[in-house]
């Protein structure tokens, strides 16, 4: 039995981090909102992102731009890493100008990237040998909830890591699942979620275009299905993008190419078959190969429509 | 644009069918509950089922057993057919002792089986040539809601068919989606739902056994995922069967072998690719082939577990 608990906040950001110095590495759509939530909770936030545009966004709420991860993390007891994958996280920690050596002795590195459990365990092991703590803390909820300090965080790690990270987690999250005392456990929960989420996006895309092929009123299909046994969180959330023909990337196709790839690698390494995840990955790969890798993941529906010469809303035939 | 409306009842069964004679053909777990709901609403219910055990259940609430579909439907203006598929429906209508000739001139045949749209259209066409009405009316909600008169009915057909069927529909359903004025439209909506439902059961089964392979606490996985973006109606509804090791068939594996087969046939006939439905169908076929065709559809999880030598709750290794 893994120890577990849910900590729900009342939603109002307080002064959990008053005066605390926190570094945020990675100021994309998620990281910038998390940095802003930390600042709102009273933290002194230093940040780094290789994209120059991030500097202005950080300054807008009083954050302090740094020239490298090490400079942002220098002497800090809390470092939040909001990058895309395990390789970037490794670079943030152990690359040139990395955080591992620079952060305070006994400080905690809160790692938010989605990655294979074994990668989280390996990074944690290296960091702990340097006398610092690692919290495996993948996030979900999207950029809007990141900006509101209302993310869901799946976390596992040593009790001291949780203790040290608590004020920052409270500032950034509405719900914290405490999923175990070893890094890698939270990563595994996140991958189970991503397996389902990826399959459901592909299935929603297949179903709505199948409905189009059958000549059905797609708005009516959405209304009926979203109240029926065929519903999924992803169907309900993503199909409106298809109905509006709006593929502005809230979450890009490339994210699920990556995450379903991790699921496939994990499963293969344990000789475990995942044919549903495999079929979904192929659909995301086809969509990326057709030029839509950076578009919203509901673009899988556009791929089906292109293949079958169907005109979804907003699509030229 | 297909005309559509939702009619929600207040939930309390009234006397919608007071004194009306209604025949119900097919008294399985769904049909018997629907017959009981009709009787509760004041209908005089005659019923037929080839299984002798159904007779006693029908008599328990004052229903009148008949020896054949024709005998049950003789002279009736409303006949409800709650059989498994298109072939059985065709037999109920046009087979020896079928309802088509026996029912009243201008009466309505409410067809609840899940079937391909073209089959619904063909059956409707034959019946209309005999001066009788056909309502394409697939149902969902399970046996408990059938018994409560609280089903969801997806329906399409001529306005007169709806008008004649209205009291019976009100007695049996909590929600009626009126999806068009031609038989086959409701069938197509139902197949879109079944595509998603089938994929989601297979995905839920894959994900929970993948989580088991990763050594995660499955009750915790259920708790986290059912509140996360990876959730689906089916994950939330079926995974408790897995956690309890209870495969008593609420809905059998064979149902999705059938329904995903219909989806595949429909899609192929329109040259439309459905790889997600295809992968799911293979998982249901493997589960059926492994001897679990008549067990609950969450048995797909047992198939994954057997293949990977995992012990889910209630399973001998």
UniProtKB/TrEMBL annotation, chains A, B:
Q: Which reaction does it catalyse?
A: L-threonate + NAD(+) = 2-dehydro-L-erythronate + NADH + H(+)
**What does the record give as EC number?**
1.1.1.411
Instruction: Please name the Pfam families in this protein's record.
Output: NAD_binding_11, NAD_binding_2
Q: Which residues belong to any copy of the 6-phosphogluconate dehydrogenase NADP-binding domain?
A: 22-178
For this UniProt record, give its keywords in alphabetical order, as a comma-separated list. Carbohydrate metabolism, NAD, NADP, Oxidoreductase
Active site residues according to the UniProt entry: 190
Supply the InterPro entries for this chain: 3-OH-isobutyrate_DH-rel_CS, 6-PGluconate_DH-like_C_sf, 6PGD_dom2, 6PGDH_NADP-bd, HIBADH-like_NADP-bd, HIBADH-related, LtnD, NAD(P)-bd_dom_sf
User: What molecular function terms (GO) are annotated for this protein?
Assistant: NAD binding; NADP binding; oxidoreductase activity, acting on the CH-OH group of donors, NAD or NADP as acceptor
Q: What does this protein do?
A: Catalyzes oxidation of L-threonate to 2-oxo-tetronate. Can use either NAD(+) or NADP(+) as cosubstrate, with a preference for NAD(+).
Its family remark reads:
Belongs to the HIBADH-related family. L-threonate dehydrogenase subfamily.
Name the chain's protein: L-threonate dehydrogenase
